[in-house]
Each structure stands twice: as structure tokens, then as C-alpha cells.
């Protein structure tokens, strides 16, 4: 073999190993999005359970606030459906976008419920109610933190697929930009 052949084989091998390394890096970053979503999904499930308990407790006490309860139940159902659609592939933009919208609607309904609780002084004597509210606030803080971790994982992945020359390989491998919440 001539020197030119060795050079071509060396360049081809380097390109092959670089391509494999770039693919593995993108897969590692995409798996980071999956791992971050699993943590976020746990907090979404915990929030759903606490909201359900809270509504069961409040409905007999405030029967005239049915519209508020229905709005929260509907928003919770939308979040559950969106999270279910996002679970298999949290790096796909469409279901994550739907989850973001559903989460915003849920946050508005939950804020309305919390505001309503503050205006009903007669509820202050129910210690178990406020224990649930405190637990819900704690889960919300954890959910917010896990959402930040998810968004950071998405940002790292998106930055990696836009860098040259990985950008070329990302399109060849079928990697698309992920969406944050």
C-alpha cells in the first residue's frame, strides 16, 4: 500500500470514529432529556394525586365553587393526557409543547383555587386541608426545580445538534431540536 492509501484509510477511520462518537454524545444528551422527564413526571403525578385529594376534601365544604373545581379537574385531565403522550419520547417537540400549554392552564386553575382558599376564613379550622395545601406547595417547588432540570437537558441537547460539524451528522441521524417547558 502506498502512503496515499494509508492516509485515506486513516482519514476514513478518523471520520468513522468521530461519527460514532458524535452519535453517542447526542444519544447521551437525549437520554438526559428522558431522565429529566422521568423526574418531572413523578412530580406531575404527585401533584395530580394531591389535587384530587384536595378537591375531594373541598367539594363538600364549598359546594358553591363547583366551577373552580371543574376547571382544576379539567386542567388536571389535560396535563395527564399530555404527560401520557410525552412519556414515550420527551424529546419530541409537539407533545412537550402541548404539555407546556396544559401546565400553564393547570397553574392558572390552581392559582385560582389557592386564592379562593385564602378568601374563605371558615376553612382555616381544617388542619388536614392546610396540611394538603402545604404538601402541594412543596410538590410544586420540586416540580419547578425538575422542570428547570428538564429545560437544561433540552438546552444542552439543542446546543449540541446545532454545533458544527455535529449539525451535519444530527440531520443524517434524524435528531431534531427538542422543546423546553
Question: Could you characterize what this model shows?
Answer:
The protein is mainly alpha-helical and 181 residues long. The protein has one domain: LemA-like domain (de novo design (two linked rop proteins), Up-down Bundle). The chain is 83% helix and 0% strand. It has 5 helices and no strands. Helix 2 packs antiparallel against helix 3. The protein is rod-shaped.
What labels would you give this structure?
181 residues, mainly alpha, 5 helices, 83% helix, 0% strand, LemA-like_dom_sf, MamQ_LemA, transmembrane helix, LemA family protein, membrane
CATH superfamily: LemA-like domain
Share of residues in strands: under 5%
Could you describe the largest sheet, including whether it forms a barrel?
A: none
What's the assembly state of these chains? single chain
Assigned CATH class:
Mainly Alpha
User: What structural class is derived from the secondary structure elements?
Assistant: mainly alpha
Which residues sit in consecutive blocks of at least 5 with pLDDT less than 50? none
Order of helices and strands: HHHHH
Number of strands: 0
The helical percent reads over 70%
Number of alpha- plus pi-helical segments: 5
CATH topology value: de novo design (two linked rop proteins)
Distance between the termini: 56 Å
Q: Which value, in Å, is the CA radius of gyration?
A: 24 Å
Integer tally of domains: 1
Mean pLDDT comes to: 91
CATH architecture: Up-down Bundle
Based on Cα principal axes, name the global outline.
rod-shaped
Transmembrane segments: 6-23
Subcellular location: Membrane
Protein name: LemA family protein
Keywords: Membrane, Transmembrane, Transmembrane helix
Amino acid at each position: 500500500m502506498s502512503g496515499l492509501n494509508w492516509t485515506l484509510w486513516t482519514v476514513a477511520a478518523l471520520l468513522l470514529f468521530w461519527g460514532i462518537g458524535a452519535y453517542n454524545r447526542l444519544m447521551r444528551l437525549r437520554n438526559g432529556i428522558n431522565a429529566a422527564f422521568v423526574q418531572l413526571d413523578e412530580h406531575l403525578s404527585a401533584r395530580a394525586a394531591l389535587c384530587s385529594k384536595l378537591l375531594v376534601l373541598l367539594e363538600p365544604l364549598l359546594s358553591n365553587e363547583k366551577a373552580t373545581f371543574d376547571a382544576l379537574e379539567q386542567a388536571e385531565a389535560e396535563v395527564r393526557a399530555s404527560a401520557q403522550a410525552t412519556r414515550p419520547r420527551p424529546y419530541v417537540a409537539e407533545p412537550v409543547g402541548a404539555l407546556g400549554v396544559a401546565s400553564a392552564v393547570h397553574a392558572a386553575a390552581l392559582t385560582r383555587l389557592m386564592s379562593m382558599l385564602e378568601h374563605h376564613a371558615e376553612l382555616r379550622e381544617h388542619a388536614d386541608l392546610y396540611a394538603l395545601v402545604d404538601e402541594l406547595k412543596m410538590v410544586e417547588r420540586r416540580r419547578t426545580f425538575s422542570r428547570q432540570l428538564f429545560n437544561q437537558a433540552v438546552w444542552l441537547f439543542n446546543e449540541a445538534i446545532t454545533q458544527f460539524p455535529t449539525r451535519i451528522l444530527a440531520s443524517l441521524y434524524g435528531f431534531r431540536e427538542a422543546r423546553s417547558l
